[in-house]
Write a structure and sequence with these properties.
alpha/beta; 6-stranded mixed sheet; 4-stranded parallel sheet; 17% strand
């Protein structure tokens, strides 16, 4: 409500009294402050020029509009601290390169990632366009970092947040979003983008069914890449004094690399823009099959990705991403996430062919603090086949099985129980995984297990089950173990199960049964 000088109407006074205000703030207008005070309302006059002539009635508080003291170095809002991140030399991990390798520390943004930049710009643009109003709800599919940026903006602006996330995301990220007051809806990773249960589809349904909801849609919103045209690009150009020759960034929505590419090439068309992409993602020629690194890569082509400004894309495996991230943290003291490892590995690959006049800037999008239960957990890394122990390992057990049968005998969920029994009999195995694709497999493509004992129980007394799909009778997936883990760990992991699924670099590569372990141990003791 805006009040000006003059007689206040009874309707205005009634409205104010109905809200039971702790105080009514009046800007500069002494007459308005006096009228409200005479009406029995608590009043504060905000002015930098307090009246000295007694015209202000006694009992009215006076507060300054501006801070009268010496200027302090303090931001008015956390949102004012977004951007302005530093560059740091990565001279230890890049010690074998002739060129300069510089890291853009985007995890020093208030929300801990590069996604703070587009989050702020997208919400400001939505407000200006009238798409998001007071008390509205922000709905967004996110792998975590964009959600944090949006949650910070929402906290300052008074919006509700609902985020949909794939189930492969680290629990720390989900807990972080909830800490900001957001609601999190977890969706399966292993479904197609247009599947009703994908985190994209669920987000769209929530927008349609939630009054006052707005989805920024970072995958199609032009303000995503534009935020980097306006802020990140100019920062890098200024920080390198225009000497940058190569920009390396991992690709998620495509907003960061597209915005940076547009700006930097507008300053110097010779600058080479290189994308770093997970193995399996469409950007580097994959089909969109699952992978373990979070927050980057896609199984579709977002509108925010501009291939015209990207000169080449380097494919990086989960193994190289995670191990490089751990190297950066231990050698540089820079704790980074898995997608940073992807980008740094690509930057090192690019830098091997460059001379001393080249300057590579690699964008480090987020911190490793969100991956303590995964990338920086030795047990998780070992279980997925990224770390290797000394002595007898699961890899040694697999080597003794020979090549008489395929490394990973499997069946698909839509094949019949009869077919599954025939496969078990053909290869002389007692159980096998149920998978949604052909090897090389991603862990997310393993959906269950079938074994002779369970199939027998299903078929006896009900022969019709023979022609039913395997997915109707399959059991949960086998426990998993990495190829580099010791044999005694496998024995403990088996528990009540008869076999474990073996992973190498995050990919299922075989099965080790209780009999396999006994045969290996008996053979090794001869």
């Amino acid at each position: 409500m805006t009040l000006s000088s003059g007689e206040l109407g009874a309707d205005v006074l009634a409205t104010l009294r109905a809200h039971i205000p702790r105080t009514v703030g009046v800007l500069e207008e002494i007459d308005v402050a006096n009228q409200l005070h005479r009406a029995g309302l608590p009043v504060d006059l905000y002015t930098d020029r307090p009246p000295a002539d007694g015209s202000l009635e006694e009992g009215i508080g006076v507060e300054p509009i501006t801070d009268p003291g010496p200027a302090m170095d303090v931001a008015d809002s956390l949102l004012d601290l977004i951007g302005g991140t530093p560059l740091v030399r990565l001279d230890r991990i890049g010690r074998d390169l002739r060129c300069q390798l510089l890291g853009k520390l985007e995890y020093l943004n208030p929300g801990g990632s590069v996604k703070d930049r587009p989050a702020l710009r997208m919400i400001e643009a939505a407000e200006a366009a009238g798409k998001l109003g007071p008390g509205g709800t922000i709905v967004e599919p996110t792998s975590g970092n964009t959600g944090v940026g949006l949650a910070i903006v929402a906290a300052r602006r008074g919006y509700r947040c609902v985020f949909t996330m794939p189930d492969k995301i680290a629990s720390e990220k989900m807990q972080l979003l909830r800490a900001y007051g957001a609601e999190v809806v977890v969706c399966p990773t292993s479904v197609a983008p247009d599947h009703p249960e994908s985190y994209y589809s669920v987000a769209r349904r929530l927008v349609e069914t939630t009054p006052g909801a707005y989805m920024p849609n970072q995958y199609a919103n032009p303000d995503n890449p534009e935020s980097h045209v306006q802020t990140t690009g100019p920062e890098i150009w200024r920080q390198t004094a225009g000497r940058i020759t190569h920009l390396v960034a991992s690709i998620g929505t495509g907003g960061t690399i597209s915005g940076l590419g547009r700006y930097l090439k507008s300053q110097n068309p010779a600058i080479e823009i290189i994308g770093a992409d997970p193995e399996g993602s469409v950007y580097s020629g994959g089909s969109g099959r699952p992978y373990l690194v979070e927050g980057i890569g896609e199984d579709f082509w977002p509108e925010t990705y501009d291939p015209d400004v990207v000169d080449r894309v380097v494919m990086v495996s989960d193994r190289d991403s995670f191990l490089t991230a751990r190297r950066v943290s231990r050698e540089e003291g820079v704790l980074v996430g898995g997608s940073c490892g992807t980008a740094v590995w690509a930057a090192l690959a690019v830098g091997r062919d460059l001379g001393s006049d080249a300057v590579i800037v690699v964008v480090l999008p987020d911190s490793g603090r969100g991956y303590l239960s995964k990338v920086y957990d030795d047990s998780w890394m070992a279980d997925h086949g990224f770390l290797r122990a000394g002595g007898d390992t699961i890899e040694s057990v697999l080597a003794t099985k020979g090549s008489a049968i395929p490394p990973l005998v499997h069946v698909h969920p839509d094949e019949t129980v009869r077919t599954a029994i025939e496969i078990l009999r053909e290869y002389g195995v007692s159980q096998m995984p149920v998978v949604k694709a052909e090897p090389p497999l991603a862990l997310a493509e393993v959906v269950g297990t079938v074994g002779d004992r369970h199939l027998l129980e299903a078929v006896v007394g009900n022969p019709d089950m023979l022609d039913q799909p395997v997915e109707t009778v399959m059991e949960p997936p086998l426990p998993m173990i990495g190829t580099g883990e010791p044999v005694d760990v496998a024995a403990a992991r088996l528990g009540e199960r008869t076999a474990v699924l073996v992973l190498d670099g995050g990919h299922p590569t075989g099965i080790v049964t209780r009999s396999d372990l006994l045969a290996f141990l008996a053979g090794s003791k001869r």
